[in-house]
Design goal:
With 184 residues, the chain is an alpha+beta fold. The protein contains three helices and eleven strands; from the N terminus they run ββββββββββααβα.
């Protein structure tokens, strides 16, 4: 998925760059999502303190809210209340553009930015699981994942302190991984 500013963009999508409108403890985070065909988020999640509203501008957009599946088209909107498990994607044949508002924004923008940086490191296997678990742990106020994923994150983020051993001069303090993506 690609995120672009929700107001004032020129209609050209910027690859995989993340650019956002303002969001904080009071104001919503507003953004447009460009969702390629075949895109599916890997895990159901909830926002413990945030309401998320999706409005489809073009294409088809799939939303699973609790146990209900919804396929939305242009002009259709769905709101997910705080702490309700949901997932999104696009199993259609073409891309979808979805205006999204997350209220309040809290640190969601920072989460997306850190997630994008983590994806750019191209970690695999246990290193990827541990790094993502540590990220998820830092943003518990914004995101909560389904029970099996949460358990895996709790176990692996604790492991990260031992396996990734932060503290070496070439390690990044936020993940304990060295600049090459390997463990310290």
């Amino acid at each position: 998925m690609t995120f672009t500013p929700s107001h004032g963009h020129d209609g050209h999508w910027s690859g995989n760059d993340f650019v956002y409108s303002v969001g904080n403890d009071i104001e919503p985070l507003r953004l447009d999502m460009w969702v390629p065909a075949g895109t599916r988020l890997p895990a159901l999640h909830a926002h413990p303190h945030q309401r998320e509203c999706f409005s489809v501008m073009s294409g088809r957009f799939d939303v699973r809210v609790a146990d209900e599946a919804h396929q939305l088209g242009p002009g259709e909107t769905i709101t997910v209340e705080p702490d309700i498990m949901h997932g999104v994607g696009n199993v259609g044949e073409g891309a979808a553009v979805v205006y999204t508002e997350i209220t309040p924004g809290l640190r969601t923008q920072s989460f997306f930015e850190e997630l994008r940086a983590l994806e750019g490191r191209r970690l695999t296997g246990l290193r990827e699981i541990i790094a993502f678990a540590m990220l998820a742990r830092r943003y518990q106020r914004e995101y909560r994942y389904s029970a099996p994923v949460t358990l895996l994150f709790r176990v692996s983020s604790g492991l990260g302190r031992f396996v990734l051993r932060p503290g070496r001069a070439d390690a990044e303090p936020s993940t304990g991984l060295d600049a090459r993506g390997g463990s310290s």
